[in-house]
């Protein structure tokens, strides 16, 4: 429905024009105003698409009314209606955005021709606006996927250099030099809170939110120089905890890692944030890694951190022979120092807890690793430790055995088939029943590249094929291969192919 307003101080002129319009055009809603003042008021309420404005009216003139209405809504089109086709009127009207003019009296044929052109323009702009709105909505959706994948690969892998710079630019969030990670533990079944949390972080520009897997939701937070690290993290933690309904937050807990400058180091902050969730039965539902008391007092802090980071990487990469050696070497080291046996057992249990957290990331479910008894000597401790490690390894290998041999091929084919859509590690994970982290790990181990790199290669290969068709524009190709921003597509294409899409196409058609 196109809305039209006819403004003229002569009722006969208004009615005559309305009859011509209704006779020659369909799907119109027409209202009339007898002077400029009423026209201004009616335009605010009616929001017309097109206004026929008589220039010579008592009180507020047509040009004055056009100026006022245009100021409130620049989208409205105007056709000037006048008995005087003078240059001065036309010049002033065109400056105000008047599309055309009708000289009274005019033949119906002339009016229909002029109106037809303007209505076509209105329909064209509506379609363009609809497409732009659709593209913006699609871009917003894609940005959410970009964000979760960036977090997943920064914390568990490495984002390919082709993408990090462009993705950060596309997310339109100012990335500060210093960053830290907050890990939010949610009760199982709390998926409904995910969108609320992500929207809150995005609205405040605090950082990036990763994918929710199991109970864990990691967030990379950008440092705010106006606040101290502890103040910023505390305020944000309290904000996030306030999002849950009263009485339902007993299982919510936030671990906060230390600040690091390099994105390459952000995985350390993530590991620290996860370790900080070790004890969730606290009155305050968040804890800084640096505030975490040692389960066994007297151990060197630097050595402790080094061991924690080492175990994170060994467990995540599935290097079980090295894991067994590390546990055995750790116990040997403590025995040589004459460490109390109970303290050693407690310290080893810390490492088991880290291992269980990392395995949980990858979808390996297992019972809490607990010693069945207090060892009476180091020999018994080594035997029980070996037994627990074997159980843990069995759970890991059982999970791997459950996967079909061609799982990676299924994932690759899914990406090939859906590369033009907004797909993410999270979406693929739901499709094949694996965690995003595990999929990232499979790609790295079996293909030597990460998922984003493979997805990009699929899209660029398809773009190259589409460029052979001279009828397709680069903008059309951008959307057809799965990108939502032609500038971003151009940057990625140039990084991959070392030539711009325009130059590539030119050489293609010259050959």
From TrEMBL:
Residues 409-507 form the HTH araC/xylS-type domain. This is Response regulator. It comes from Aquibacillus salsiterrae. Residues 3-119 form the Response regulatory domain. SUPFAM superfamilies: CheY-like, Homeodomain-like. GO terms for molecular function: DNA-binding transcription factor activity; sequence-specific DNA binding. Keywords: Coiled coil, DNA-binding, Phosphoprotein, Transcription, Transcription regulation. GO terms for biological process: phosphorelay signal transduction system. It holds the Pfam family HTH_18. InterPro entries: CdaR_GGDEF, CheY-like_superfamily, Homeodomain-like_sf, HTH_AraC, Sig_transdc_resp-reg_receiver.
